[in-house]
Design goal:
The protein has 4 helices and 10 strands, in the order βααβββββαβαβββ. It is of the alpha+beta class. Bound molecules: coenzyme A (COA).
């Protein structure tokens, strides 16, 4: 059995090690990392899965910015999901699913409007993520736009938006929750 709780200070090094193992040490060159640069993950949504007190999985969510076509107003509380990783020896046991479910449930309870991620559609479709609801939004640094997917937590929060996905602007309140 595994448990899911918030990241603790002591988890930090182990999480970095797990992410290197899962994505390789070149992971920081990925498009999603550029979006997270200079930001802090939302503490309430930074979750660790543990088995016998050993870290076996991790998920984080980050504030995200949207630069929309003139006149459009960004919905409050759009999150960037990731990275999600489960230790290779503990995969296919439902840990990834439990981390996503718990993260999205907590995000919803905290009134976040939507989550966006860059990842494999074949995995994330079963959690309600799709490219269709973010088809009007471009992530310039991502070569394969089909990997950019969204999931609305508030119905209609993403699908009508047109513009660019950007880092959360530090001088803006656009991402404040409702
Ligand atoms: C992707 C990842 C987080 C899944 O975690 P997990 O705990 O093994 O996932 P779950 O046990 O909840 O789900 C397993 C199911 O997902 C499927 N799956 C795993 N990775 C997949 C992928 N990239 N595409 C499609 N399906 C995938 C498995 O085949 C399995 O299918 P089944 O239930 O039909 O047997 C884990 O494999 C991982 O850390 N991979 C490396 C890092 C990574 O790629 N992370 C982000 C995904 S883009």
């Amino acid at each position: 059995m595994f448990t899911i709780n918030n990241h603790t200070h002591n988890d930090h090094k182990k999480i970095e090690h797990l992410l290197d193992l899962s994505f390789g040490t070149g992971r920081k060159g990925k498009s999603a990392y550029a979006l997270r640069k200079g930001q802090v993950a939302v503490p309430e949504l930074a979750l660790a899965a543990k088995q016998n007190d050993e870290l076996v999985g991790s998920i984080q969510f980050w504030p995200l910015g949207l630069s929309l076509t003139e006149g459009a107003v960004a919905p409050p509380g759009v999150l960037l999901l990731g990275p999600l990783a489960v230790h290779p020896e503990q995969q296919n046991m439902g840990i990834g699913q439990a981390l996503i479910d718990e993260g999205l449930q907590r995000a919803s309870a905290l009134n976040y409007a939507a989550a966006i991620l860059v990842g494999d559609p074949a995995y994330y479709c079963k959690f309600g993520f799709d490219h269709k609801c973010v088809a009007g939004l471009t992530l310039a640094a991502e070569a394969d736009q089909k990997r950019v997917q969204g999931r609305e937590l508030t119905p209609g929060s993403l699908s009508e938006l047109r513009g660019e996905i950007i880092s959360f602007p530090e001088d803006s309140d656009q991402n404040l929750k409702k």
